[in-house]
């Protein structure tokens, strides 16, 4: 917990308040699919929530950093529900959401935690709901750097453990969760945008 709090404090200014490209692309999908209620695990200080709110969607967040939650309330108001805690402890409510957006988070978890997060998010999707994950690609320059922990997972940047995805590992982890599209998107790193849909 302390590690993530200090890491957040170091990085918060550099991220700015513009939404990530992935958030804008996901918002477009959610608008097209008439999504009304969005869950954002790892909401941070809310920079990626605003595009959904501005499009008329209600947003609920999950965030481990108290500092980030305070910033989100300061910049985006008190109305947004943000559960304080780790995404590994989901679910925090018994609601079903028709949209879930998880940005640059799942690749920080180990294989057991990743499987649980995917399952927990899928369980909280309503029928015909959509969930989108942004994950780091093996095309990133940082792939292979640091200390190898397990296949395609490295410890770097003074303690950050990161799993790097390719299309095969995306299929392995997300096929059971309604995977229907994988696209590439470049932000500060090369990412994959993973789109899943829950259908009966």
Describe, in plain words, how this protein is organized in 3D.
With 200 residues, this protein is of the alpha/beta class. It is built from six helices and ten strands. A seven-stranded mixed beta sheet has the order 3-2-1-4-5-10-9, with helices on both faces. It has a three-stranded antiparallel beta sheet with strand order 6-7-8, with no helix packed on it.
Low-confidence stretches: 1-14
What's the count of strands? 10
Name the structural class.
Answer: alpha/beta
Topology order in helix (H) and strand (E) letters? HHEHEHEEHEEEEHEE
Q: Report the average pLDDT across residues.
A: 91
Q: DSSP helix count?
A: 6
Based on Cα principal axes, name the global outline.
globular
